[in-house]
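Hi Y.,

Following your request, here is the sequence exactly as I used it, all 182 residues.
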Amino acid sequence: MHGPASPGWLLVALCAATGAYCLLRMRSRVEEQRRTAGGEALMGFGMAAMAVPAAVFTPPSWTWPAYAVVFGAAGLRALWAARSGRHHLHHLVGAAAMVYMAVVMAGSPAHGHGHGTSGTPVLTGALLLYFTGYVLLTGVRLIPVVAVADGRTAGGWGDRPELARACRLSMAIGMLAMLLPL
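Below is the corresponding structure, written out as tokens. Let me know if you'd prefer a different format.
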């Protein structure tokens, strides 16, 4: 998704670390936390794979349609889950953004990582605006959060709402970095 390799590797590291933390969150005792964390782990690892610099690895042409199918399915799951809570709509937008980037990458020359010639400016702008707003709002909401579960301070890593918000914040920042070159 990027030109220079160094920022690309930083984005890969951020997204992979976020995905790994989301896997840890899947050990939560709260069922809704586990389901949400699974989708976020998929998003984190998918973003990490998409962000690998083209100078290191150019994926085969079938990769981009596969991304579109996987994240299209994740988007449908998020749409279905949105019946129980509107916070799933953010996952729907994230999955849609991943499908959009996969389609743009599939249409770019030699199916490499894009450099700003294939995206729809209006859609890219709308996604940039959404994720910028999300980053700003989530950043403000991180100041300070008390983790409480059943009237006591939560002890497990998977049950800490401030860490879950920080996870979503880092993925939204990563999404901004991936959308900018489109």
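The chain has a mean pLDDT of 83.

Thanks again,
Q.
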